[in-house]
Amino acid sequence: MEVWTDYTNPFDASDDGTRPYGDDDGDGLLNVYERHFGTDPLVADTDGGGESDGAELYELGSNPLDGTDDAVARRDTDGDGLRDLTELHYGTDPTLADTDGGGVDDYTELYIDGTFPTDASDDGQAPWGDDDGDGLPNSYEAFYGTDRNVADTDGGGVNDGVEVFQNGSNPLDGSDDLAFTIDTDGDGLSDGQELFNYGTDPTLADTDGGGVDDYTELFIDGTSANDASDDGQNPWGDDDGDGLPNSYESFYGTDRNLADTDGGGVNDGLEVSQGTNPVDGDDDGSFPDANGNGVPDFFEGH
Questions:
Q1: Of 12 and 90, the one with more pLDDT
Q2: pLDDT in tens, 165-178
Q3: Would you place residue 14 in the very low, low, confident or very high pLDDT band (cuts 50, 70, 90)?
Q4: What pTM did the predictor assign?
């Protein structure tokens, strides 16, 4: 029982019945942890201070072996939502709700805003808040060098958040704000994106004149908006329906517009899957058998 069930020492009578993963005294602290912390697994309040061992360790943060701190463990002298012992731990004043006098209480600074309760300069400037309502959190304003109290730092007419998250323009340069809000050629890309990001012509919907507009080439087909030769040739599509994507046709040297490039009678996709050469019609329909065991390579390992 001691060895296989309770995991206690069969040569030590003092631990009989004190299962390591049980809680014999019902204080919320497992027996094995009682031993670790030096508390008594059979006494709920080891130090006799008034708070159970489990509450002291998991809730109050006080010492379960020191009865003198139990009485103050739950005390919140300044009523800021932080217990006095917690304040001492963080270096705040347990007699002042707002230690730094910045206008925001210690609890809010620590657990909501993430600011320093001992530094008045950051009061109210929650890093995950958005003080100026521009869509850019305060912490990002600091990262990009924008003003957390001004929605449009560069004064160009577009809020910082829109510039960073939507337009991709510079929130510190007002000269590019207008360009990223206008789409002269109506292709779905702003003039700023065409000029600064993709090198396409903001006055032509189809910069390369290949028949597919710039937006479709860039964001749908994945082709070059500056190269007419690849217009309409979606690399992940299958223009000839042979089961071989266009990008693979290029890799194998097959024709993306012909299902059976070598004319041997078997589609390019099936040839590739079977291990035959899709640009050699002589091997169509054959099944390579490299080891000569009578089982085609295609079926080996299946």
A1: 90
A2: 988 889 999 999 98
A3: low
A4: 0.41
* DSSP calls for the chain: -IIIII---TT-GGGTT--TTS-TT-SSS-HHHHHHHT--TT-SSTT-SSS-HHHIIIII---TT-GGGHHHHT--TT-SSS-HHHHHHHT--TT-SSTT-SSS-HHHIIIII---TT-GGGTT--TTS-TT-SSS-HHHHHHHT--TT-SSTT-SSS-HHHIIIII---TT-GGGTTTTT--TT-SSS-HHIIIIII---TT-SSTT-SSS-HHHIIIII---TT-GGGTT--TTS-TT-SSS-HHHHHHHT--TT-SSTT-SSS-HHHHHHHT--TT-GGGTT----TT-SSS-GGGTT-
Residue environment code for 273-295, b if the CB has 16+ CB neighbours within 10 A, otherwise e: ebbbbbeebebbeeeeeeeeeee
Residue type, 181: T
Q: In Å, what is the CA distance from 165 to each residue of 51, 175, 192, 268?
A: 52, 18, 14, 44
Enumerate residues 6+ apart whose C-beta is below 8 A from 286: 276
Secondary structure string (H, E, C) spanning 104-138: CCHHHHHHHHCCCCCCHHHCCCCCCCCCCCCCCCH
The answer to whether residue 296 scores a pLDDT higher than 70 is: no
- How much is the pLDDT for 217? 86
Structure tokens at 58: 């998991």
Question: Who contacts 135 (Cβ-Cβ below 8 Å, separation ≥6)?
Answer: 159, 160, 161, 162, 165
Query: Would you state the structure tokens that stand for residue 178, as one six-digit string?
Result: 């207008």
Average pLDDT over residues 246-255: 83
Q: Which two tokens stand for residue 185?
A: 């050629």
